[in-house]
Amino acid sequence: MIRSLLFISALIASSVNSLAFTNPATLRRSVARFTDAPVDSTVVDAALEAAILAPNHFMSEPWRFYIPGPQTTASLCNLNPEKTKMFEKVPNWLVVTMKSENEKHSKLWLEDLSAVSCAVQNFMTSLAGEGVGSKWMTGALGSPPEAILGTVKAGEGEELVAAVWFGIPEKELEGAKAPPRKLGVAGTLTKLD
Ligand SMILES: Cc1cc2nc3c(=O)[nH]c(=O)nc-3n(C[C@H](O)[C@H](O)[C@H](O)COP(=O)(O)O)c2cc1C
């Protein structure tokens, strides 16, 4: 009896350890090469549920999400003819915009932008926990934000925050090396009295 209790507690301890080891926040890496394997829709739904749990001041919920179907994806890929071939290899897109009621660059507008950024991170981290790779794209799309907003038929006044590419990565996320941080923690942390 005592032996089996010890065995069960060892099992629980090892699963807690493995949870800590596979912390999705550190597992997430920017991924540009994907396989053709589909991403389960329940994984995407869970990632969107995680996204909307991002902190947001005054509960402004400033994020708006767009998942393009085949026709809209083709339009996104054709926005920049020089990159069409590369874009066509991306299995899934999520376009994230900000709808803020606040004056541009005001304190509350910046808070809304921060909240949407947190939502994007939550989305990608949740995917990473399920082995799904993602990449936050902006400038490298080579198209003006207005063109992307127009393609996804974003609402009046919405601003582009991210186009997130996602899919099953060619190389597993686990073990993928992060691009080295030049400053690191030591270069960015000040401990005060
Ligand atoms: C706001 C934002 C915009 C980004 N835009 C691009 C982009 O246009 N092209 C690109 O290759 N990566 C883009 N990235 C991804 C970064 O290049 C990537 O996060 C960085 O290289 C660190 O790698 P990691 O995500 O694996 O930690 C963007 C990231 C953020 C936060």
Automatic annotation (TrEMBL):
Keywords attached to this entry: Signal
The protein's name in its UniProt record: Nitroreductase domain-containing protein
Cited Pfam families: Nitroreductase
Lineage per the UniProt record: Eukaryota, Sar, Stramenopiles, Ochrophyta, Bolidophyceae
PANTHER family for the chain: NAD(P)H NITROREDUCTASE YDJA-RELATED
Ranges of residues in domain Nitroreductase: 28-67
Leader peptide range in chain numbering: 1-20
GO molecular function, one term: oxidoreductase activity
SUPFAM superfamilies recorded: FMN-dependent nitroreductase-like (SSF55469)
